[in-house]
Amino acid sequence: MKMRSIEYQILLSASDVQPGDDLKNELSGLMVQEFDQGRLIDMAVREGVAGLLYKNLKKTGVLGYLEHQHIQQLQSSYYLTVRFNLKLIYDLKEVLQQLNKKNIKVVLLQGIHLLQQVYKDIGLRPLTDIDLWILPGTRDAVDDVLTRLGFEKDRLYPNIFKKASTIIDLNTHIFWADRIKSRQMLINQDQEALFQNCRAIDFEGQKAYRLRRTDQILYLSLHAIKHYADRLIWLVDLKNLLQSWQAPDWGLFATRCKELGQESAVNDIMFLLTQLFGRRALIDVPDSLDAKRLNRLERKILENRLNGRPLPVWSPMLLFTSGKGFYKKAAFIFESLFPRPEILRQVFANSPNLKMWQLYLKRAVQLVAQVKS
After folding, report:
1. Tens-digit pLDDT profile for the chain (373 aa)?
2. Which of 121, 110, 116 is nearest to 168 (CA)?
3. 286: exposed, middle or buried (C-beta count within 10 Å: 0-12, 13-18, 19+)?
4. Least buried of 5, 216, 324, 371, by fewest C-beta within 10 Å?
5. What gap in Å lies between CA 234 and CA 52, rounded to an integer?
6. Which of 155, 254, 156, 263 is closest to 214 using CA atoms?
7. Among candidate residues 104, 111, 116, 194, the one with its CA nearest the CA of residue 141
8. SS3 321
């Protein structure tokens, strides 16, 4: 494994919401070394941890080690995140108010709920959109509410609704089976059972729901793999959620992963977390989650993220299906490579008039190019 750059080590050391003295000392020691300050700031913004870097450098008293222009870049990123997130929160409150009037249950996913649950300071966690999960039977009613509030449905992506800078991603299947149907096989349970297990929360005075704790960690783990773990913030989210867990919590989680049939993918994420952040990040992790013997290919895949690079584009097909039977694995891989025509039209949005055979030929050429690269 390659040596991690000083810039990447700094980002890892600055990733706690409330860093202890050990991390502050570690961060101070890294900041006195020679590194590329411009590269550090660019990496922090790209990885989604600029807010954490800014606040933790201030807390540690080493923000002044950066040149003035780089301090200003971090400050600007932090305050832009605050402003953007405030707008998302305002719009979501309005949506929830109308959905609650109709008694429509909606689950908050990913970053929008983590602002409240983990980060508190809304400048620490950048968001790009609002991810909501509803059951298919309420979809028409939710569409109507969003339309009445001024949101417009995207022409190519019917789950995306936009109003000015606010984007809502409306999921009717928690594991994205509304795009790739075989993703329903990712867990050994119908999604309605997960939906009914969600917990009610207060979001800025409006009722919403969140996943139960074990299901939230499983969902965020699969989400990170789906997107090649190409942003550090998704792993930081998991680390900050799990830091307070004790042995009983881990026991329940291990049981839940086995029940849902996703021990392997979660093991891969736990490997990443412990390798990136050290054992201090996760205490009392049971052997069933932490001591998995990765095969050579899995280790090679995951080492990309350990060195600051995203996982290969083909990696979700392998990591999602690890431990699954031949039929499930083959169905998932084939549909991921060659999805339905309407999904391919989204992939090749600049070629709207292609016939079906042309779509699949273009897809084959694209896949060959990805393999060669």
Report:
1. 567 899 999 999 999 999 889 889 999 999 999 999 999 999 999 999 999 999 999 999 999 999 999 999 999 999 999 999 999 999 999 999 999 999 999 999 989 999 989 998 999 999 999 999 999 999 999 999 999 999 999 988 999 999 999 999 999 999 887 887 888 778 888 899 999 999 999 999 999 999 999 999 999 999 999 999 999 999 999 999 998 898 899 989 989 988 988 888 888 999 899 889 986 677 777 766 655 567 788 888 999 899 889 998 888 888 888 777 778 888 888 888 888 888 888 888 888 888 898 888 998 998 888 776 6
2. 110
3. middle
4. 371
5. 13
6. 254
7. 104
8. helix
Structural contact between residues 156 and 345, judged by C-beta atoms closer than 8 angstroms:
yes
Strand partners, 161: 153, 168
Contact 336, 316 (CB under 8 A): yes
SS3 264: helix
Instruction: Using alpha carbons only, give the angle 224, 196, 138 rounded to the nearest 5 degrees.
Output: 85
Written as six digits, the tokens of 16 are 């706690």
Residue 116 is assigned to a structural domain of this protein: yes
Please check whether residues 352 and 316 belong to one and the same domain. no
Count the Cβ atoms, other than its own, within 10 Å of residue 245.
Answer: 17
Reading the block at residue 76, the tokens are 């600007």
Helix pair angle (296-306, 263-277), 10° resolution: 40
> Is residue 107 one of the residues assigned to a domain?
yes
Burial class from Cβ neighbours inside 10 Å (0-12, 13-18, 19+) for residue 239 reads buried
Q: Which residues contact 93 (CB under 8 A, 6 or more apart)?
A: 203, 204, 205, 206
Does one domain contain both 184 and 277? no
Tell the residue number behind the tokens 């109507």, with chain if given. 144
Which residue range forms the structural domain that includes residue 126? 101-211
Question: Do 259 and 168 share a structural domain?
Answer: no
For the chain, the domain total comes to: 3
Residue 47 lies in a domain: no
CA Rg, the chain, in Å?
Answer: 21
For residue 58, give both structure tokens: 């201030």
Task: Please report, for residues 3, 91, 228, 299, the alpha-carbon distance to residue 295 in angstroms, rounded to integers and kept in the order given.
Answer: 21, 46, 18, 6
* Same domain membership, residue 294 and residue 254: yes
